[in-house]
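Sample intake sheet
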Amino acid sequence: MTQIIKALNWRYATKKFSTQKIPQEKLDIILEALRLTPSSLGLQAWKFLIIENPELRTKLKEVSWNQDQVTDASHLIVLARPTHITDQDVLKWTHYLAEKRNMTADSKDRFEQMILNYLKSVDEKEKGIWLDKQLYIALGNLMTSCALEGIDSCPIEGFDPAAYDKILQLDEVGLKSVVVCPIGYRADDDPYQHEAKVRFPREDLFLHF
């Protein structure tokens, strides 16, 4: 069995974390993997909030259905996206990309215009859905990277995003929380780690054309 399949069989949505902290060198690997997540048009329209402050995490737990993972895990990561994506956001990206790839002005301008035209073609609701979806790409990458490093994780949608935004003052910086993921190490007495991993067989999931 390959390393990645072993890691994915090992991981589960950890319900009870120990007090063990993730070493800085491992945390740096996880955060770099998160930074390398692919995104639509390469825009990287997101921010990853690393919450360590105990007082903040206690407040966030209260608006997360009182789930212990929010306070007990080594680190709490909130995946957030811009409230609105602007032309300036696009220009910042295309200029940076052109600089790093030595793109010609014409090539950069064409790519830039393509993105701007797309954003003009969809309304704010559609843009919001599109931006939210990007965070789930990042979430999947985060959980897989954690598993490969022997770090536990637990994706959480059971929280009040508006309350998170207020507590973290995200409105003031034009951000919205989308999904939350505590990371750390499972407690020895978390019974869920001993449950069989249950997935439908391949023939129920894959269609070959």
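Comment: The first strand starts at residue 47 and ends at 51. Residues 17 and 72 are 6 Å apart (CA to CA).
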